[in-house]
Amino acid sequence: MLTLDNVSVNYGAIEALTGISLHVEQGEVVTLIGANGAGKTTTLRTITGLLEPRSGKITFEGENIGGKPTHKLVAQGISMSPEGRGVFANLTVWENLQMGAYLSRNKLQIAADMERAFKMFPRLKERESQKAGTLSGGEQQMLAMGRALMSNPRLLLLDEPSLGLAPLVVHTIFQAIDEIKSKGTTILLVEQNAHAALGHSDRAYVLETGRIVMEGPSKDLANDPRIKEAYLGE
Description:
Elements: E1 2-11, E2 14-24, E3 29-33, H1 40-47, E4 55-60, E5 63-64, H2 70-76, E6 78-81, H3 93-100, H4 107-120, H5 122-126, H6 137-149, E7 155-159, H7 167-182, E8 186-190, H8 194-199, E9 203-208, E10 211-217, H9 218-222, H10 225-231
Parallel strand pairs: 3-8, 3-9, 6-7, 7-8
Antiparallel strand pairs: 1-2, 1-4, 4-5, 9-10
Helix pairs in contact: 3-6, 4-6
């Protein structure tokens, strides 16, 4: 479904990604793990057209999408819940979700997608008329994910969905990831919580300073002594 082939990205003179290659097959949850500054968010921003690769190729469902405008990628079926949530603080929960469906003209479909978001995250239904800026961090994360799902993506990119959240909320977020996958949406997950990420994904890539240094089935990496020592605190 998604392939990055030898992609390099620069921030000015600084090389943020160095020839990374990865693939995500339809129906999978694939995770990128790594420390701060490893290049995880840069990878997602490059896929979504917010950054342009210096070299290499990005294909989605067989089409080269490198450098394509972000709004056109949303129309093609790629959506992202960004790091830091990025909710519209002065808009209500309901209005934020509506913003996620801005490409749709089908009111029945929008209503059905809204109901799906409320069913997945009942807290959002309770806060439907509340300004997003007044929500807790966990509620804002639920809203960011719900908003990303409103465009009915075939590929959902999740950037640090558990960052800064209480353990109980993290559990809720990863339950939602499992549910989204069960409904057929493919997920590329960037996550510092390696334990949760490896426990809820099919395959994983490990990024270090802009390079992929390990890859494989998530269960195998979770049992690898190097991963245990570096990322799982064991």
